[in-house]
Amino acid sequence: MDDLTFTARRATSSTARAENDVDARFRTLVQSPLRAGILRFLSARPGELFDTEALMQTFGRMRLDIENCVRELVDFGVVRKLGGDTPTYGATRPDGAAGGLLDVFLEHRAHVGVEETSPSVQRFREMIGRDEKMLAIFEWIRTAAKSDISVLILGPTGAGKEVVARMIHELSRRSQERFQAVNCAALPDTLFESEIFGYEKGAFTGAHERKPGRLEMANGGTLFLDEVGDLSLVAQAKLLRVLEERRFERLGGNRSIQVDFRLISATNRPLDLFVRESRFREDLYYRINAFAIRLPSLKERAIDIPVLANRFLARYCASNGLQLDAKQLSPEAADQLIRYHWPGNIRELESTVSRAALSAPGRLIRPSDIEFLHAHVGTRAGESTGHRLPTLRDAERTHIVQVLEAARWNKVEAAKILDISRGTLYRKIEEFGLEPATPDPKRRLRQ
User: Fold this and answer.
1) pTM to 2 decimals?
2) Class assignment of domain 298-369?
3) How far is CA 144 from the centre of its chain?
4) Smallest Cα–Cα separation from 374: which of 428, 432, 295, 332?
5) Helix (H), strand (E) at residue 181
6) How many Cβ atoms from other residues are within 10 Å of residue 223's Cβ?
7) What are phi and psi of 443, to 5 degrees?
8) Using one digit for the tens of pLDDT, what is the confidence trace for 150-166?
9) CA 161 to chain centre
């Protein structure tokens, strides 16, 4: 082999190694859903520049997360930075192998990678938020995940209680084990024992083989009891014994089984009130409520509504094979979403956004494309509804507000006037997202 051939081969080998290195760096770069999202966002808007605040608002992340991701994109050469007192960022295409990798990435930008579809990543993407209440909840989730302490998640229906429970599990040392979710509201007493404890073959008619219960399947992992406030007193007593002893017997069996699990519970019920009314065992309440996390309703975190809506739009586009920015909310549509009272919270927002994306004929979603399942947008007690006759839900909400105001938000008196229990009144207040119109420091709020 002459010197010229050897030199050429060595140069080729060096070029191949360099290209492989660029390829590995790029794959690592776009493994992060946030970095990949920022890269797609900027690339879809060539010629436009965005500062850190704009990116924070778009992606619903904290400043440090955005700055770290953008810095890595700039270092690789796929994003350019313009200096000044407030730096701005825009898309750019690097030369050579990096440019080719970027082109391939953007051509398949509607494709969601394996890492992005993993359950843990999807949970975190659903829990985005810039509201201070949500930022505090993120810290509580991290704190709860550091130990095996029992957690009680409170909040209205559709606020994401199971999402938080799964996040705690996936951040904990038990993340590699099973997460067993039980819907207590759909579990009658006749099925409680067989579902939770399991049964032996022949324990009852139809028990043709042994079946492990949720407790046994959660061994080493996490047991999530959703709507725990709906358990009967009999079921509560049986659950309390297991929590105290960490042992149980299958239905129809006599062998004691030892279990090691982490308990997370959730409810939209006022358990403290249920305890006072003897509808929930006090000893069980203290067992499950070692660490409480209260989730705000969507109405309480209106600043996050556009961020969540855009995330659901991107998910809709990805699941239907469209580019991730194929559907966009108009400013008027975003304002309409913010004004709505969202009795179904995040779950209702996602279905509403998906329905609007399907109905919109073009790329831009306008207010006329949005259809709400409940009362019309922005209706509040005392506001004019024009010529539209109120629905039963509207009338109920208005009447409850009038009684609460007449009783100066004394819930005990309001419940007597309405002739309902305080528990029912609490549920209605949560359901309608009611709160005093003008806080009065002298007003006595009876709980």
Assistant:
1) 0.60
2) mainly alpha
3) 17
4) 432
5) strand 179-183
6) 26
7) -75, 135
8) 999 998 888 889 989 99
9) 7
Residues in the chain: 447
| 379-447 placed in CATH 1.10.10.60 | yes
CA distance 236 to 183: 14
Q: What is the C-alpha to C-alpha distance for residues 345 and 341, in angstroms, rounded to an integer?
A: 8
What distance in Å separates the CA atoms of residue 193 and residue 381, rounded to the nearest whole number?
45
Contact between 93 and 99 (Cβ < 8 Å): yes
> pLDDT by residue (tens digit) across 324-343?
778 889 989 989 999 898 88
CA distance 45 to 98: 19
C-beta of residue 263 within 8 angstroms of C-beta of residue 180: no
pLDDT digits (tens, 9 = 90+) for 296-328: 888 888 888 888 898 889 888 888 888 877 888
SS3 160: coil
* Torsion of the alpha carbons at 116, 119, 120 and 125, rounded to the nearest 10: 60
Helical segments of 118-211, H only: 119-126, 132-145, 161-171, 189-196
Query: Does the fold of domain 379-447 match that of domain 3-109?
Result: yes
Q: Span 132-294: which CATH code?
A: 3.40.50.300
So where are the chain's domains?
3-109, 132-294, 298-369, 379-447
Q: Hey, what CATH class is 3-109 in?
A: mainly alpha
Q: What residues have CB less than 8 Å from 97, skipping those under 6 apart?
A: 18, 19, 22, 23
Give the C-alpha separation, 211 to 197, whole Å.
9
Return the residue matching tokens 């329905």: 355
* Rg of the chain taking only CA atoms, in angstroms: 27
Q: What are phi and psi of 67, to 5 degrees?
A: -65, -40
Question: In this structure, what are the phi and psi dihedrals at residue 382, rounded to the nearest 5 degrees?
Answer: 90, -10
